[in-house]
Amino acid sequence: MKRIILIMVIMFSSFAYSQWQEINENIDYGNVNAVFMKNNDWIISTQSGGFYKSTDSGLNWHQIDQKLESNGILKIIGSGDTLIYVNATPSIFISTDFGDSWSKNSIGSQYQAEQPISLKYFNNKIYLGLKINTLISSDFGKSWNNKSSDTPILPKLIEQIDSNILISNNQEVYLCNANLKFINSLFHSNVENIYLLKVIDNIIFTSKSNYLFKSSNFGQTWDSVKVGNSGINNISKIKNSYFIVSDSIYVSNDNCKSWTKKNFIKKYGNTYNSSNIIDDTLI
Q: How far is Cα 136 from Cα 141, in angstroms, rounded to an integer?
């Protein structure tokens, strides 16, 4: 199925954030699961169609992965020039020059039956949550340390705060050290699943259903606010404004106390979730 890449042009004034531009000219691919940007160089990854790169801010695209085992991309992350993705094998592929070249490392034959659930890269360490085990690599995937005995849960979501790591499954958020050694529990959801775990300016954000929770004191206390009508799965900050992706896009200019719904393009059918728009960053 063809998906559209839509970029939101921010107008930093008292008016609404309201301009959208379609930038998928001349390419056809599967679902877009991430967008990475470095100046005018942009890379998109697709769940079934591999990687495409633009060197002119999305005006023209070319495929960059003809020799990569890109089918079945399950998780992908980016940090600066480093891009890392894991496929269904599972094997891990790493680029340190923003997609110009890639290296492949095996995760290990003992983990071949496990599906990747989470993937993050912090402080030169790769954190990989599998169906049964949780692994860390400090050498770009050449070797792996199994941290399952130290980790209280199998992490569905992983984030960094200061020198520590936050992990979450469907109902808990835990604080761990950089080696995933448990420190304490920060948040619990009795019924609804947790779909969001994000750290912005040392503030922790999580969600259950359409309620956003934030803590500025390492989870000691939490403020909550209802946003939209469905699950919250992404939050980003641009200058002094926060953006949420839910059943639509919502904007807050008062430090997440109140939210305003912004009109979104209906031309292409259902409202897109965060993975269809941009992973981790709204532009």
A: 8
Residues in the chain: 283
**Residues 166, 280: one domain?**
yes
| 204 and 252 part of one domain | yes
Nearest C-alpha neighbor of 41 from the set 26, 56, 63, 52: 56
Q: Which of 108, 30, 109 is nearest to 73 (CA)?
A: 30
Amino acid at 167: I
In the DSSP assignment, the letter for residue 275 is H
Q: Is residue 171 part of a domain?
A: yes
Q: Report pTM.
A: 0.82
Whether 19 is in a domain gets the answer no
Number of domains the chain is built from: 2
Q: What are the DSSP calls for 209-271, one per residue?
A: TTEEEEESSTTSS-EEEE-SSS---EEEEETTEEEEESSSEEEESSTTSS-EEE----TTSSP
Q: What are phi and psi of 252, to 5 degrees?
A: -125, 130
- In the predicted model, what is the mean pLDDT of the chain? 81
pLDDT digits (tens, 9 = 90+) for 176-185: 999 999 999 9
Same domain, 142 and 207: no
Lowest mean pLDDT across 67-71, 134-138, 189-193: 67-71
Whether residues 31 and 145 share a domain: the answer is: yes
22-80 pLDDT, tens digit per residue, is 666 655 566 677 788 888 898 888 766 578 888 988 888 888 765 666 556 678 888 88
Domain of 219, in residue numbers: 162-175+182-283
140 and 241 belong to one structural domain: no
Asked if the structure places residue 250 within a domain, the reply is: yes
Question: Which ranges of 96-193 would DSSP assign to H, the alpha helix?
Answer: none
Q: In this predicted structure, what is the pLDDT of residue 160? A: 94
Count the Cβ atoms, other than its own, within 10 Å of residue 167. Answer: 26
CATH number of the CATH domain containing 117: 2.130.10.10
